[in-house]
Design a protein that fits this description.
Elements: H1 8-20, E1 22-27, H2 29-46, E2 52-58, H3 62-71, E3 76-85, E4 96-100, E5 110-118, H4 122-132, E6 138-146, E7 159-163, E8 186-189, H5 191-195
Parallel strand pairs: 2-3, 2-5, 5-6, 6-7
Antiparallel strand pairs: 1-8, 3-4
Helix pairs in contact: 2-3
The structure holds 1-O-pyrophosphono-5-O-phosphono-alpha-D-ribofuranose.
């Protein structure tokens, strides 16, 4: 009998502990895949004949960025920004510091900001003002998740994935203490994970 390319042991080993920490799956891997395809088709149609600059906001957006860039058929370039909000570590203050800026000028370019999650909306609100000041041809937003109940400021999102309840979630780019970003779905953590 031929050995499988990926033995079950090695498939299960690495993420097993992380999966066990998950209490409930809010958005499944399949739902994410279908949503990425749906959003990419809309973006392809809306920007047909044009080129866009995807601006991913580190670190959470890396998964959406990677999946979206592969699903789009229009030409895209990929840029990343890293920002940090002053104040509390768990909620945005709306005052943002740029830790890593774009590598290029975006004047006259069609920019699509890629976010994993919109919580209070303060980060994105600040970022959109910052990017618009660079005189792009257009700026729109694609976000995989949004917590409508947590919104402190309304941000226009052209391409929205899923609205979720205002609970702490991990996976698909989202972390708790820098862990769980690699989970292929979005879920909540068991309460005991926070207390250890
Ligand atoms: C998250 C997320 C957004 C921001 C949303 O990033 O990626 O950028 O928070 O929150 P807001 O709507 O309340 O402003 P985070 O600061 O957790 O950094 P990370 O992506 O590196 O984990």
């Amino acid at each position: 009998m031929t050995a499988p390319l990926l033995p079950m042991e090695s498939e299960a080993e690495q993420p097993a502990d992380l999966h066990r920490d998950v209490e409930a799956v809010l958005v499944s891997q399949q739902q994410i895949a279908e949503k990425v395809a749906e959003l990419a088709a809309k973006i392809d149609a809306d920007y047909a004949g044009r080129e866009i600059v995807l601006v991913g906001v580190l670190k959470g957006a890396v998964m959406v960025m990677a999946d979206l860039a592969r699903a789009l058929t229009i030409p895209v370039s990929m840029e990343f920004m890293a920002v940090s909000s002053y104040g509390s570590a768990t909620s945005s203050s709306g005052v943002v510091r740029i830790l890593k800026d774009l590598d290029r000028d975006i004047a006259d370019c069609h920019v699509l900001v890629v976010e994993d999650i919109i919580d209070s909306g303060l980060t994105l609100s600040w970022l959109l003002r910052n990017l618009r000041a660079r005189h792009p041809a257009s700026v729109e937003v694609v976000a995989m998740l949004r917590k409508p109940e947590a919104a402190q400021v309304q941000v226009p999102v052209a391409y929205m994935g899923f609205d979720i309840p205002s609970v702490f979630v991990v996976g698909y780019g989202l972390d708790y203490a820098q862990r769980y970003r690699g989970l292929p779905y979005v879920g909540t953590l068991r309460p005991e994970v926070y207390s250890t």
